[in-house]
Amino acid sequence: MTHPDLTFETQGDIAIVRLERAAKRNALNDALILALRDTFQNLPESVRAVVIDGAGPHFCAGLDLSELKERNAGQGVMHSRMWHQALECVQHGPVPVVAALHGAVVGGGLELASAAHIRVADSTTFYALPEGTRGIFVGGGGSVRIPKLIGVARMTDMMMTGRVYNAEDGERAGFAQYLVAEGTAFDKAVELAKRIATNAPLTNYALMHALPRIAEQPADHGFFTEALMAGIVQDAPDAKERVRAFLEGKAPKVSKN
Ligand code: 1HE
Questions:
Q1: Which of 23, 93, 198, 221 has its CA 20 to 30 A from that of 15?
Q2: Which of 19, 24, 25 to mutate to test the pocket of ligand 1 (most atoms within 8 A of CB)?
Q3: Burial of 136: CB neighbours in 10 Å, binned 0-12, 13-18, 19+
Q4: In this structure, CATH architecture of domain 6-197
Q5: Known catalytic residue at 111
Q6: Is 182 a residue of the active site?
C-alpha cells in the first residue's frame, strides 16, 4: 500500500488517505489511480471509516494532463475503465469515505470526490469540469455520479460553458453536504468519520450498498429490497443491543444542535 504520492495512516478505527502531490496540485497519474485502488481494496479490517484529503492548497487538479498522450479509442476505453475500477473501490468498498475538500476540486478530482459518501468543503473550494473545454469528456465515472449530486442540467452547463462553482454555490447545488471555514475541512471530516465509525457496520454497509441501488429501482422493487435490507440489518446483535440501550434509557436521544 505504499506509493510516494499517497499516504495512509490510521487514527484509532478511522484511516486517513492523503494525496501528497501538492507540487502538481495532486494531479492523478495512472500510478496514483492504481495506488488509490490498491489502498481502498486492502483496508485493514479494523478501519471503520476513511477520510480522503489532498496535501497543499488544492484537493485535486484531476487527470494528470502530462499523461494524456495519443491513445486510440480502445486504449482510451481501457484507461477510463481503470479509473472506474479504482473509484468503484472507493464508493463500494467496505466502509464509508468522507472527502475533505479545499481549493480546486476539478475534473477527475471532482470525480474522485463524487465517489466519496460525504463531502466536506471549506470556503476555498471550487468545482469545475474543464474536460469540456479541453476537448475531452469525463472518464472517471463523472457522468454517472455527478448528475446524482447536482443534476444533468448543471453538469451540462459546467462542461459546455466552463462554469466554475465556488464553495457556497457548490454547497447549495449539492456538491458538498457540509460547508466549513477555511482550513477546517479536514478536522470536520475526521470528526464525521469518527462519528460514522460508531454506527453498526451493517447499517453503514446498507447505506453504501443498498440505498443507492434502492433509489434507482422502480418503487415496487425498491420497497421490497428495502424490506430485505431492513430485516437483515435489524437481525444483527449490534442492532438489538443498541435498541435495548435506548429503551433502558442508556442511549442518547435525538436532540437539536
Ligand atoms: C498539472 C495539473 C494537471 C496542475 N495535470 N499537471 N484538469 C485541469 O484541467 C486542471 C488543470 N489545473 C489548473 O487549472 C490549475 O493548475 C489549478 C487551478 C488546479 C491550480 O492552479 P495553481 O495556480 O495553484 O497551480 P499551477 O501553477 O497551475 O500548477 C502547478 C503545477 O502543477 C504546474 O506544474 P509546474 O511543473 O509548471 O510547476 C502545473 O502544470 C501542474 N498541474 N494541474 C498535470 N491536471 C478520468 S478523466 C478526468 C479528466 C480530467 O480530469 S481533465 C481536467 C484536468
A1: 23
A2: 25
A3: middle
A4: Alpha-Beta Complex (3.90)
A5: yes
A6: no
